[in-house]
Amino acid sequence: MPFGCVTLGDKKDYNQPSEVTDRYDLGQVIKTEEFCEIFRAKEKSTGKLYTCKKFLKRDGRKVRKAAKNEIIILKMVKHPNILQLVDVYITRKEYFIFLELATGREVFDWILDQGYYSEKDTSNVIRQVLEAVAYLHSLKIVHRNLKLENLVYYNRLKNSKIVISDFHLAKLENGLIKEPCGTPEYLAPEVVGRQRYGRPVDCWAIGVIMYILLSGNPPFYEETEEEDYENHDKNLFRKILAGDYEFDPPYWDDISQAAKELVTRLMEVEQDQRITAEEAISHE
Fold first, then answer.
1. What residues contact 21, with CB distance under 8 A and at least 6 apart?
2. d(Cα 55, Cα 63) in Å, to the nearest integer?
3. Contact 153, 72 (CB under 8 A)
4. GO molecular function terms here (predicted)?
């Protein structure tokens, strides 16, 4: 399917809003995120369903940057465990990004309902995430926001694959990166410590994800009331910087040593000693 608009920011290449509505029916908003609204869209000529993310330019520079960034990165990638870009339209007022529709649930929702995954099911999820991230890293792309909410079952079948979504914070690693971003509970020590960082931050986040899947609990937990954001994050970050987590009983009693070792190697505080995604795939 051709992209509606190939170049970014060139005024003569702006799409007309009618080009979007002539091709797609946009349904009701199904989700509102920090930078965009998400719709379920139907292609009129085929009846196929897609996800549409709409970014409003008037919402500010950060929103415009997030939209441009997601488009640039998604045009670079093609992998079975990454939600694929289908179409892009850029009008004077909006960015429309059309993606494959994943009809399954977020892994986060599954954890909320079920508590934790078996070691076998965790291994299946983590292997797929590692393969996608190793692919991204081979292109020097850092996702920077891997978390349970961004891992989605592609469909509702029992053996559905996992896909990674939400690339608005992803970045090409041209030299080490400086600006901190991401979700507090998943941040690597080098991000918390305001150091320069790169692809190892994704491996740390996969370690956090694996820890939660196996135990049903986050590795770094702060009991301060979440309303007291400043102290909550300060104490949380202190634990992350120190790598202060445990394999607490009874949650970890039946987990294999190999699984614990992989979590430990993914959550190595020193980024230059942390296992890579490629290495983790072949970890026994």
1. none
2. 7
3. no
4. ATP binding; calmodulin binding; protein kinase activity
Antiparallel, parallel or unpaired: β 162-164 and 151-153: antiparallel
Mean of pLDDT values over 10-36: 88
DSSP string, 44-98: TTT--EEEEEEEEGGG-HHHHHHHHHHHHHHHH---TTBPPEEEEEE-SSEEEEE
Residue 16: predicted pLDDT: 96
- CB-based contacts of 184: which residues, under 8 Å, 6+ apart? 233, 236, 237
Q: How much is the pLDDT for 6?
A: 43
Q: At what angle do helices 107-114 and 200-215 cross, to 10 degrees?
A: 30
Give the tokens for residue 197.
């960082």
Q: Which domains does the chain have, with CATH numbers?
A: 11-100 (3.30.200.20), 107-281 (1.10.510.10)
Q: Note the pLDDT tens digit of each residue in 110-122.
A: 888 888 899 999 9
- Among residues 183, 102, 169, the alpha carbon closest in space to that of 141 is found at 169
